[in-house]
Amino acid sequence: MTTTMLDRDAIKQKYAEERAKRLRPDGNAQYQRLSGKFEDLSVDPHTPFQERDPVKDHVTFAFIGAGFSGVVVGARLKEAGIHDFRLIDKAGGVGGTWYWNRYPGARCDTAAMIYLPLLEETGYIPTEKYVRGPEIRAHCERIASQYRLHDKALFHTEVKTIEWQEKARVWRITTDRGDDFTAKYLGMGTGPLHIAKLPGIPGIETFAGKSFHTSRWDYDYTGGDAEGAPMDKLADKRVAIIGTGATSIQCIPPLAKSAKQLFVFQRTPSSVDVRGNHPIDPAWFKSMARPGWQKRWMDNFVENTGGGLPSEDLINDGWTEISRRTRQKALKGTPLWLARLVMRLRRRLKRSPAQQEIARMKAAFDEADFEMMEQIRARVDAVVEDQNTAQKLKAWYARLCKRPCFSDEYLPAFNSPNTTLVDTDGKGVERIDETGLVANGKHYEVECIIYASGFEYGANFQLKTGFDLKGRGGKMLSEHWGNGLRTLHGIHVYGFPNLFAVQMNQAANYALNIPHNIVDHAETIAQVIKHAEAAGFAEVEPTRESEGAWVNLILTTGPSLIASPDCTPGFWNNEGQGWSKEFRQSQGHPGGPKAFFDHMNEWRADGDFKGLHFAK
Ligand code: NDP
Questions:
Q1: Which of 394, 385, 393, 392 lies closest to 417 in space, CA to CA?
Q2: What gap in Å lies between CA 311 and CA 264, rounded to an integer?
Q3: 252 Cβ contact partners less than 8 Å away, ≥ 6 residues apart
């Protein structure tokens, strides 16, 4: 399908109008936390709390966060000979986001072949191209068991204080369980999406029925389970769900099957493309899985989604399609071999693409994007029977403005007579009272409200984690990062010796396969620690200069297609509040994720740990 110039102008105009409807001055401040009066909503419904004695000991490496970051770093450190490793997490077990998010229908939108880390090391064969939540959590457990990461782990434990002890050259850590221990090295993988947020709807606290956030799904109330058993206890219930992001897209189909009546309150529709899932054939997997295959697949995905000119697309899905179409438009018939040659020469000469070329890529992206979004909107018309509902489910923004979604069940759910879309035309739910919700001036009486309202992304480090770090000379991390994030490679922080962060910011930000960044960081951390231990160093820390140079490099990153300030507001683009210096400083490598991984491969291969200072 092609869009005419006239169509494009009209569509651009529509995008701008829809964006304007949604801009609000309070940005991130519109949301509230599951604390204070909402404390009850934050209780862990998955694992009973167990009393235990406080821990007072010393470990070589303590890691805060037992999600993918914690288990992968733990695995790599164990391989490097560090056996004295401790995970700490406020959850009741490993899994991170997959521990908390057990809502019905939870599934990863990234292909399991690249999303599930350490498939080669564990020998695990994913069951499907896109696996379900329980399978992902089980994989975290598999890694933790294989590498004996449960041994010293502290679960249902929140860190309170962390302080660098100048004399002993160790980190001292205290927790809400009375623990008080030390660690030579400290890691943090606290995740970008771990603080659930509630919408700031007036009257939200007055609702007398049942309510919960999707990350604390209450199966005792709904019946059913995370494995997909029907939620039989909802058969006589009117249920409201607020939000239509990636989580909602997945849990609405099972809710539509179970609830007596389901009201979906929508502020902004998601773009929902074809899922195209299929089982993984173990025979095919075994024939394909030669040593080093997973790194090759991860690299291939980054090349296909990150501006490379790859000769093959191993993943071949909705994510790589966005780039494939952009490439086709940009190449305009230029043979691939010639384009590759130019790219290689440019790299060799360390020349970044000229402004002209960047503008050409942007135009190609826009053209491809218009076509894809038109297809996605046409799909809504083809699937949703009620034409008024179909109109309201169409997304009017560029695809990478909001998290693209994929589902073959979401749109058909609106054909169920018990499921009603309550579109609020960008305004959101007006009010909540004792018996239900008000939107567009109409009251909807319900017994249950489910908040699919997402997670804090924009908040600063201390607000997100609930702790601060006191580094060398008593300097707080909040002070060091007061004017924006400062790291070398997103990992090391000047003034905070033996500290290792695992995060996307100042690294492979916006990589569409988040575990790739984690696996890469884990490799770096293991290599640094192995070197420090072998040579008998007591401390490792980036120099002030290397950290400063890295921050300056990050600040050259321009607004990407993903977080463009022209996009409709959302957590990817700072709720449309523009790019402050602080926001720019939390971006990734200016060349994108692939450039970051290339840089790290070279940095590690050099083996001289450029930018780090080791001290005996
Ligand atoms: P999101 O932040 O994406 O969605 C929150 C939803 O709540 C939005 O639709 C938002 O509308 C809506 N909302 C907020 N306030 C109001 C209000 N006052 N009235 C009505 N609606 C409101 O959260 P999700 O949990 O859906 O997803 C978060 C992220 O988690 C995803 O982007 C993705 O990165 C990850 N995820 C990944 C999955 C995977 O497959 N790997 C699956 C699920 C989630 P608006 O858009 O207007 O702000």
A1: 385
A2: 43
A3: 105, 241, 244, 262, 264, 410, 413, 419
pLDDT tens digits, residue range 384-408?
Answer: 999 999 999 999 999 888 999 999 9
Q: Side chain identity at 340, as an amino acid letter?
A: R
Structure tokens belonging to residue 19: 């964006």
- Residue 114: closest CA among 399, 572, 517: 517
CA-nearest residue, atom 36 of ligand 1: 246
Please give the distance, rounded to the nearest whole angstrom, from the Cα atom of residue 226 to the centre of ligand 1.
Answer: 20
Indicate if ligand 1 lies below 6 Å from the C-beta of 437. no
What span, in angstroms and rounded, lies between the C-alpha atoms of 501 and 484?
A: 15
Centroid of ligand 1 to alpha carbon of 172 (angstroms): 37
CB atoms closer than 10 angstroms to residue 427: 13
Residue 83 and residue 191 share a domain: yes
Whole-prediction pTM: 0.94
Structural domain that includes position 545: 58-195+457-615
pLDDT at 416: 97
Same-domain status, 508 and 440: no
pLDDT over 80 (residue 463): no
Pick the last residue of a domain from 350, 378, 400: 350
Residue 544, H or E segment: helix 544-554
User: Does residue 201's CB lie within 6 angstroms of at least one atom of ligand 1?
Assistant: yes
Are residues 410 and 264 located together in one domain of the fold? yes
1 confidence band (pLDDT: 50, 70, 90): very low
Considering the domain architecture, whether residues 424 and 566 belong to the same structural domain is answered as no
Q: Do 204 and 241 share a structural domain?
A: yes
As a whole number of angstroms, the distance between CA 521 and CA 516 comes to: 9
Name the residue among 88, 105, 84 with its Cα closest to residue 96.
88
Q: Is the CB of 450 under 6 A from ligand 1?
A: no
Which residue's alpha carbon is at the smallest distance from atom 15 of ligand 1?
Answer: 199
* DSSP code for 105: T
Instruction: Tell me, in angstroms, the distance from the centre of ligand 1 to residue 405's CA.
Output: 11
Higher pLDDT pick, 560 / 475: 475
- Residue 491 in contact with ligand 1 by CB distance below 6 A: no
Give the count of beta carbons closer than 10 Å to the beta carbon of residue 316: 14
Q: Is any ligand 1 atom within 6 A of the Cβ of residue 265? A: yes
**Residue finishing a domain among 451, 466, 486:** 451
Q: Are 195 and 455 a contacting pair, CB within 8 Å?
A: yes
User: Three-state secondary structure along 379-418?
Assistant: HHHHHCCCHHHHHHCCCCCCHHHCCCEECCCHHHHCCCCC
* Residue 161 Cα to ligand 1 middle (Å): 31
Q: Comparing 14-23, 327-336, 583-592, which segment has the lowest mean pLDDT?
A: 327-336
- Provide the total of helices (H) and of strands (E) in the chain, helices listed first: 21, 21
Lookup: tokens for 446 = 């319900």
Structure tokens at 208: 């007398």
Cα–Cα distances (Å) from 164 to 104, 482, 495, 543, in that order, read 43, 19, 10, 17
Residue scoring higher pLDDT (238 or 357): 238
Q: Is 536 exposed, middle or buried (0-12, 13-18, 19+ CB in 10 A)?
A: exposed
